[in-house]
Amino acid sequence: MKRALITGVTGQDGSYLAELLIQKGYRVYGLIRRSSTVPTERIYHLGDSLNLVSGDLLDEKSLRQIIEECQPDEVYNLAAQSFVPESWTQSILTGEITALGVTRLLNAIRDVNPQVRFYQASTSEMFGKAQTVPQDEKTPFYPRSPYGVSKLYGHWITVNYRESYGMFACSGILFNHESPRRGREFLTRKVTYAVARIVAGLQNELRLGNLDAQRDWGYAPDYVEGMWRMLQQESPEDYVLATGETHSVREWVDKSFAVAGLDYKDYVVVDPRFVRPAEVDLLIGDSGKARKQLGWNPTVTFDELIEIMVEADEALVQEQEASQHAIAALRGIR
Ligand code: NAP
Ligand code: GDD
């Protein structure tokens, strides 16, 4: 039985990757950091098939102990401070987790078992002010946020440990990928959740920032399959995963409202609070290498993704409303 350790297992991708690896017969360990609240919403359904271990990318000793205890064959480093706007307000913390955290984990692996196969969650944000269209593994980087700069460090330290120590370390340069499990602060989910609440009569306005930025949006479960495929190759390499299509934020907003029979212009207000100090204007990926070498292909179209997310949020809001009513009834309020 192969063993895998996933950092960031409580996040969107971590939860899908844990499902995939359990399904493939792995013994899966998920690193979880101490919290006074319960962050297991996305992995609760996995029950005892997922083994949770306590640690933090800020604490190298905890990482070493975990590698010693779990003896993984594969480590997937998905943990990060991943929300771009927060990286300006918490720039040092973002660097500590998203950049130096990668070195801490690589050091721990190297000390305990350098044969471990390592995946680093790199990002299209590293292309930033994109130097070519579309972007592929050879495109020069030009990050536009402390998050992008931190991820670029994580990318290069992964490449460097591969070249310095012969480690099986891969960097997956993934373009935006979304799902009903996306955090509600990210654009796609912020919009689909708002649409569902508007339909339910719970809000009548949605405040957004730059509607002109363009992104290459795919479906998260497809992307975790690509991560796994990278670690099954004969030699470690870096790969871009992307759909090869780009759409504007405005298009995402327009289509999400349209799925619910609404016109976004009646609800959306542009609010400078959500405009970033520096923007990544255009992302579109060329994943030709992954398609050829990994046999990887995205399976969900842009329109299907929007439908999946709007429908899931409509069901979620109905559920939340039903439980609010039940609690209120119990208290005799309604
Ligand atoms: P996410 O939902 O924001 O999840 C981030 C995860 O990192 C959470 O489990 C979080 O734990 C954990 N984490 C944060 N700080 C930590 C620390 N100090 N120690 C240990 N764990 C920590 O992110 P995602 O969308 O799943 O993305 C997964 C990875 O891929 C991230 O590294 C992200 O930067 C990268 N990426 C994402 C995309 C995308 O479009 N989704 C594209 C390219 C690259 P808590 O639950 O405790 O906060
Ligand atoms: N979050 C957010 N909220 N974004 C908005 C808003 C808003 O109110 N209004 C407009 N946007 C625009 C942003 O300016 C950006 O151009 C775009 O919507 C997408 O923003 P996010 O969904 O926050 O994602 P991101 O592209 O900045 O970063 C995500 O993808 C990266 C891969 O390219 C994150 O998942 C990163 O962790 C990931 O690396």
Comma- or semicolon-separated keywords:
alpha/beta; binds NADP nicotinamide-adenine-dinucleotide phosphate; UDP-galactose 4-epimerase, domain 1; Rossmann fold; seven-stranded parallel beta sheet; 334 residues; 10 helices; 13 strands; binds guanosine-5'-diphosphate-alpha-D-mannose; globular; 2 domains
CATH fold-type name of the largest domain = Rossmann fold
Count of DSSP-assigned helices:
10
CATH superfamily caption of the largest domain = NAD(P)-binding Rossmann-like Domain
Q: What's the CATH class label of the largest domain?
A: Alpha Beta
Distance between the termini: 54 Å
Helix fraction, binned, reads 40-55%
Bound molecules: NADP nicotinamide-adenine-dinucleotide phosphate, guanosine-5'-diphosphate-alpha-D-mannose
- Write down the overall geometry: globular
Q: Look at the structure and give the mean pLDDT.
A: 97
Order of helices and strands: EHEEHEHHEHEEHEEEHEEHEHH
Tell me the domain tally. Answer: 2
Which architecture of the largest domain does the CATH hierarchy give at level 2? 3-Layer(aba) Sandwich
Cross-sheet strand order for the largest sheet: 3-2-1-4-5-6-11
Which range does the strand content fall in? 15-25%
Return Rg in Å.
20 Å
What's the story with the biggest beta sheet?
7 strands, parallel
**DSSP strand tally:** 13
What would you call the structural class?
alpha/beta
